[in-house]
Amino acid sequence: MRRKGLASMAVQTVDTATTVDLGPASGLSCRECGEKFPLGPIFACELCFGPLEVAYDLPEGDPEALRKRIEAGPANIWRYAPLLPVPADVADKPNLNPGWTKLVQADNLARELGVEPGKLFVKDDSGNPTHSFKDRVVAQALEAARAFGFTTLSCSSTGNLAGAVGAAAARAGFRSCVFIPHDLEQGKVVMAAVYGGELVGIEGNYDDVNRFCSELIGDPLGEGWGFVNVNLRPYYGEGSKTLAYEICEQLGWQLPDQIVIPIASGSQLTKIDKGLQELIKLGLVEDKPYKIFGAQAEGCSPVSAAFKAGHDVVRPQKPNTIAKSLAIGNPADGPYVLDIARRTGGAVEDVNDEQVVDAIKLLARTEGIFAETAGGVTVGVTKKLIEDGVLDPTLTTVVLNTGDGLKTLDAVAETSQATATIRPSLDAFRDAGLAN
Ligand SMILES: *Cc1c(COP(=O)(O)O)cnc(C)c1O
Ligand SMILES: [Zn+2]
Questions:
Q1: CA 123 to ligand 1 centroid distance, Å
Q2: pLDDT one-digit tens code per residue, 131-140
Q3: What is the per-residue pLDDT across 343-383, written as a single tens digit (0 to 9) for each?
Q4: Which CA distances in Å does 414 have to 77, 409, 411, 418?
Q5: Pairing relation of β-strands 152-156 and 25-30?
Q6: Residues in the 5 Å CB sphere of ion ligand 2
Q7: Could you tell me the domains of the chain?
Q8: Are 42 and 21 in contact (CB under 8 A)?
Q9: Does residue 341 contact residue 294 with C-beta atoms inside 8 Å?
Q10: pTM above 0.90?
Q11: Quick check: 237 and 137 in contact, CB under 8 A?
């Protein structure tokens, strides 16, 4: 059911009739050719095979009223329900209520990186229920799965998504069966298994897992399954818009000047841009230029390589990096990331594994935030872009940390150990040379 008032504020942008209630979502549209489709568990255009995305009847009218309504909403992503493909009463349904994570003003890190005081922020998405940004996207896919009558939730995952799906399914009473590369970090494997769903390790890398899932969807074996990042991908992607909404609201309803975003498939980056564009269109923030920067690990940098070479197409790579959550060698949204980085005047850059580890420790040491390897990638790339004069240290900059360091302990375990191990005596402590 639509919340009272929203329907009358709505404008019709898509003419396909539908009985599915996903709030302001009015249909799907092809990102390539613009063809419209009714809301359903489909992800590719019948005409040109382009990716489908959600189209909306967004609320029209007084931005101040909408801003107030959002501010009065719950301290999670559902405060933005009027802008998401979810029913108006979504907050009353069993889900993990992710989002509204901290935007940390990172003055210590700013000092180290030579950024003007008060201008550098870390959006810390390790604070989500399963400790990564993936709870945002899964929460959207869950509502789509409910609307389409699926009873099993599934995904192909580089680790974090599997845990987020397992947890959301447990809470919402769905069966879950998730697929991961067999050689992931222990923290991610355990996290994916502990919620009691089925967890399947596939002998291969993420791209093999993804290919397998695409086959499963087309087979009777996968009937009735909602794959959050495959057949529910258009809905899933919309969850990343909430990062854009939160960042702007937390900055006092202002656009940042620069954002540094990690790239795996590229979905998050493209949808953050979509979210920023919506806020401008709705009059919730003042329009001004912003730059979007993409961050990859050198060992899996197909988008960065294409950006630097001036290419429009992304040539697949075989990943080899400690940043496993970003290890997608054939990123579905790669070309769109290139478009956005170029359109906004941003860039796509990469750092090597050693720089990732250094950046994890830099963020921990300066701000008390223990990031997973993906956060090491964004902080490392931020450092590099400042050193190269690409990122402007006088402008408001937001760096994303999308996951929790406890899931990727191996990255820093070797160099983060006890300073000393001593007998429990004052003499031993004195001998260790640690007193002031
Ligand atoms: C999935 C993931 C991302 C981004 O993934 P996209 O496929 O680009 O949307 C970023 N950081 C972490 C920790 C992730 O798990
Ligand atoms: Zn199309």
A1: 14
A2: 999 999 999 9
A3: 999 999 999 999 999 999 999 999 999 999 999 999 999 99
A4: 37, 9, 8, 11
A5: unpaired
A6: 30, 32-33, 35, 45, 47-48, 50
A7: 6-74 (3.30.40), 102-131+240-413 (3.40.50.1100), 134-236 (3.40.50.1100)
A8: no
A9: yes
A10: yes
A11: yes
